[in-house]
């Protein structure tokens, strides 16, 4: 579920920064590129969830809500929203927020389960 929470963090903040701060379309491109780099991990998460018997009703939505609320809380606490958004964009573009970088232990566990 954490993988899906990561997706929401990137999607929500790239959209929010683009719409709220009026910064350029690099946010949409960064979000699209993040998704392309991480789609395999998201598919892996779905396969593992299915293999383990599926998720409880609302569990995926809860993970997504949690991810979204955490990043919006950080944004709201930032003194300079423009600087926050630019730093976030840099992290997305650099791959620092990719699932394999942010959640290596969870990724290894998912890979282990999938290979059984």
Summarize the structure.
The protein has six helices and no strands. With 116 residues, the chain is mainly α.
Provide mean pLDDT, rounded: 87
What is the molecular shape? elongated
Q: In which range does the helix fraction lie?
A: over 70%
| Derived structural class | mainly alpha
Q: What is the CA-based Rg, rounded?
A: 15 Å
**CA distance, first residue to last residue:** 19 Å
The ordered H/E elements are: HHHHHH
Beta strand %: under 5%
List keywords for this structure.
single chain, 116 residues, mainly alpha, 6 helices, elongated
Per-chain topology:
Blueprint: H1 2-21, H2 26-51, H3 59-77, H4 81-94, H5 99-102, H6 104-114
Helix pairs in contact: 1-2, 1-3, 1-4, 2-6
Q: What can you see in these coordinates?
A:
The chain is mainly alpha-helical. It is built from six helices and no strands. It starts with a helix and ends with a helix.
């Amino acid at each position: 579920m954490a993988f899906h929470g990561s997706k929401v963090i990137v999607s929500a903040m790239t959209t929010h920064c683009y719409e709220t701060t009026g910064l350029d379309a690099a946010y949409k491109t960064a979000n699209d590129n993040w998704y392309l780099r991480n789609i395999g991990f998201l598919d892996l998460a779905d396969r593992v969830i299915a293999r383990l018997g599926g998720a409880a009703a609302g569990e995926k939505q809860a993970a997504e809500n949690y991810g979204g609320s955490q990043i919006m809380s950080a944004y709201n606490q930032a003194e300079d929203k423009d600087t926050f958004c630019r730093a976030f964009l840099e992290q997305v573009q650099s791959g620092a927020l990719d699932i394999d970088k942010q959640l290596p232990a969870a990724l290894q566990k998912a890979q282990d389960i999938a290979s059984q």
